[in-house]
Design a protein that fits this description.
alpha+beta, four-stranded antiparallel beta sheet
């Protein structure tokens, strides 16, 4: 059972922090090789972490990659790197936090977006990072909002895409989709509108 004081601090939060002096091997690799890339996914671990990056332009001299660990060059300008965890990833792996995304801003540092169970865990995280010698700043913390699509929204959007309703040249009308699903036109319009709003909000907040 949680104490009353702890209960008052619980509640899912979205947290975005900036680590100014990260010792991430992947970031150092990108800096040293002057490679432009985006972090797409990162699986953090106490000993090793896996990074999926999207190269913004094809990388030259692939045979000279000198990062410690293992890597794979994948079709579509993706690179998969597994290497020793940096200080922050080791801390993330030990605490009740979920890493949603990581990005690198050359002039600032590493930006991490996380989900935490409440304000108390935010303070605990920041304390641990600073104790480990990291220069960390909180960009924002706000309530977590679930932007996942419902089953019905996915069904309607999938059909709208299949029938090219969302294309530049529509071959079907909204009433046709409504007829196929068995709902009225106004309901289908609302479902599509709400689904698109969720998708846009989710990507704007990342």
């Amino acid at each position: 059972m949680y104490s009353q004081s702890l209960k008052q601090t619980l509640g899912l939060k979205i947290l975005k922090i900036l680590i100014c002096n990260s010792d991430c091997r992947v970031v150092k690799f990108l800096q040293d090789r002057r490679i432009e890339a985006e972090f797409k996914k990162v699986r953090v671990g106490e000993s090793f972490s896996t990074h999926l990056l999207k190269l913004l332009k094809p990388m030259e001299g692939k045979e000279n990659i000198d990062i410690k660990g293992s890597y794979m060059i994948l079709p579509g300008n993706y690179i998969w790197i597994e290497t020793e965890s940096c200080t922050s990833c080791k801390i993330f792996s030990k605490l009740p936090v979920i890493v949603e995304s990581i990005s690198y801003v050359e002039s600032s540092g590493v930006v991490v977006r996380l989900i935490v169970p409440g304000r108390l865990f935010h303070r605990h995280l920041i304390e641990n990072l600073k104790k480990a010698g990291l220069d960390v700043k909180t960009i924002f913390m706000k309530d977590y909002v679930d932007y996942e699509l419902t089953k019905r929204q996915k069904e309607v959007l999938a059909l709208a895409l299949k029938l090219n309703y969302l294309g530049s040249r529509r071959s079907m009308k909204l009433k046709d989709i409504a007829f196929l699903i068995g709902l009225d036109t106004s309901t289908i319009s609302r479902i599509i509108r709400d689904a698109v709003k969720k998708i846009v909000k989710k990507h704007l907040e990342e």
